[in-house]
Amino acid sequence: MQAALPIALKADRKAEFLALLAGAGAELERLARSSESEIESVSHAFKGLAAQADTILQQAAAIVGCIEKESMGSVLASVQSLCLTVKDFLGQRLEAATTILGTLQEEEKSLLQLIRVTQGQEAIARHLRALSVLTNVEVARLGSSGGNFQLLAEELSSFSKSLTQQTMELACDTKSRQQTIAETRNELASSLPQLRSEMTRMEDGIGKALRVIHAGLSQQADVPIQFRRCAEQTAQETAGVVAAIQAHDITRQQIEHVQQALQLIACRISSGDDARDDDLPLAHAGLKVQILQLKTIQETVANWTSQVRRCMEGIQQLSASGVAGIGPTVLRQEQELSAELARIELLQQKSQEYSGRMQGTLSGLSSLVDLVNVHLKRSQMIRDRLQILMFNSLIEAQRLGGRGAVVSAIARLIEERSEEWIAIGNQSELALSEILGLVQRTTALMEVFSESSCRKLREDQAQTRAALDSVRSTAAVVANEATQMQTITENMHANLADVAATGTRLDLCFGYLDSVLGQMEGLAREWESHDPRAAGPCDPAEVERWLSAFYTTEIERSVMSAALHGTALPVVQQSFVGNAVELF
């Protein structure tokens, strides 16, 4: 009885070992069946997520390209250039208008002097009319003896009437020009401070707007770039998950090969006896290889399931809300700049109105100069005629002798008026010379208000408008793309709940690996404890020949080599490429 007891115990132990191996194989079979549908579900979900991530990346790239091509930075440069042009443009006009204002004040003084001249000429004309009446009276008194004096009286009467008309025209036109100049001067005097204040306010307003916009530009420019980086990382993670799930074919084959190996080990144990000492070491070595194979499978599965979680976290954080806000923000900034440009154009329009008023005033002064020139020419003729009238009067007085006393007095009066006219004519020439100088100076200043001076301003305005038009188009494109991106990211977020549930079920499925490993490691320890021969030396080449028939992947061969020869275990990669690593 005592001799048979170890044999009976060994048979019982063998049956227990075989039962454990069969249970581990059944667990692996259940794992393979239960995980298959979940793997397919996750693979399908992540393929959809990968396609959505690619679409988002394309849209993000389009947005970044738009922003880099037509950024607000280039618009700011255009606006800054325009502001400098406007500042120079309005500054020159303000300076010219201020100088013109002083010139107009001097012109008013010259016109006052001209008015006094015309008043003196009007007085001379009145005196000549009185002399004409006195001459007619004397002609009537002399009767037929008056002779040529009657012709002199007629000429004096005609001349006095013509002179009165001319001096009235000159006086009326001079007063009209004086009033126009006074109105222009008053308008400039009251408007220039306001225009200067508006210009200063415009510079401050545009400067503030530029600073605010410039401060936000870098942040806005970084948003789509940061989003693209995040999307690229998510896309890489998603692509890695898809590749890793596709590599489940290898994992599935490894599990099947472990099942086959366990069956082979069970056959070796069930057919072994005390006469064959090499069966137990071979079976034990084969069991150790399968334990290491399962650990590699477990590590591989843990690796890509953690990659699934990282990818889910990345998708959860992926949001296009920041990008979606760029379009409206840029449009608001464009509207602010457009409003400032409208103020610039209003100031330009005001300056043009002042320019029109001043040009009208200068045109009136030029016509006044023309009128005075004509008057001076007439004045010379008048002076000559007065001289002739004086000489004819003296000749006629000499002819009449004692009866020509009145005629002689008339001649002296004409001579006095002639001398006054000459003096007034000199004053008139002096006033005209001053007016001509002022008009020439003002005309030179008015070049600032010419059409050519506006060319640079119009060019900068056109460039800025074109830049703002591009910004509006870009903002619309960005807003449209960002809205689509936001919709896609929201859909991706919505799909994550299903993916997470599937992932949880996958964790439960592959949780069987822990149970199988525990059983197999317990079996190996118990085997070593109850039969030391199991841990004895064996022929590695025989083990390789025994197991390699169904090891079709490189990783399985590497794991077997590590278990039998102590070589390094293969490094489990974070992503895989299907069955490309299969050997045959």
Brief summary of the model shown:
The chain has 584 residues and is mainly alpha-helical. Helices cover 88% and strands 0% of the residues.
Q: Please give the number of β-strands.
A: 0
Model regions low in confidence, pLDDT < 50 over at least 5 residues: 1-9, 574-584
Classify the helix fraction into a percent range: over 70%
Q: Kindly state the mean pLDDT as a whole number?
A: 75
User: How many angstroms separate the termini?
Assistant: 54 Å
Q: What features would you describe in this structure?
A:
Helix content is 88%, strand content 0%. The protein has helices at 5-69, 72-142, 149-246, 248-271, 279-317, 321-324, 326-400, 405-445, 455-510, 512-530, 540-547, 554-565. It contains twelve helices and no strands. The chain has 584 residues and is mainly α. Helix 1 packs antiparallel against helix 4 (248-271), helix 1 packs antiparallel against helix 10 (512-530) and helix 3 (149-246) packs antiparallel against helix 7. The chain starts with a helix and ends in a 19-residue tail after the last helix. The chain has a domain at 5-71 and 230-322 and 493-565.
